[in-house]
């Protein structure tokens, strides 16, 4: 099955490698992710989702793999994205999805196990990314 979800991965070096994440007001801690539209390249979808969900302009610089999530109908394409502007330690962004939600962004240490506040799907996504990124 071809990827139908795009996940932009924004990284920074803090005490260790950190990944951009957010708190959804109804669904807990998550990574930016969204559907790949018909005829859209996965890298373009990752850049679009980053702008829509985080208010951040980015450039997809390299693919990080295709992940079969185990969740029905969700195959994710991960792309590392470099951002154009400097990012704060934390910020909020109002996203238009699902009638509009305020997302609170933060940096999650990639080597740190995700808490139970993360949906199991995103816990597995973080494990996948940790395996790919922390061993390089």
Sequence-ordered SSE layout with sheet pairings:
Blueprint: E1 5-9, E2 11-13, E3 17-24, E4 28-30, E5 34-35, H1 42-54, E6 58-68, E7 75-83, E8 91-95, E9 101-109, H2 120-133
Parallel strand pairs: 1-7
Antiparallel strand pairs: 1-5, 2-3, 3-4, 3-9, 6-7, 8-9
| Structural class category | alpha+beta
Largest sheet: 5 strands, antiparallel
Percent in helix: 10-25%
Average of the residue pLDDT scores: 94
The run of helices and strands is EEEEEHEEEEH
- Give the terminus-to-terminus CA distance: 27 Å
List the total number of helices: 2
Estimated share of beta-strand residues: 35-45%
The number of distinct β-strands equals 9
Q: How is the quaternary structure best described? A: single chain
- What is the overall shape? globular
Unreliable spans: none
Rg to the nearest angstrom?
14 Å
Domain Nudix hydrolase: 1-130
Protein name: NUDIX domain-containing protein
Pfam family, one: NUDIX
Keywords: Hydrolase
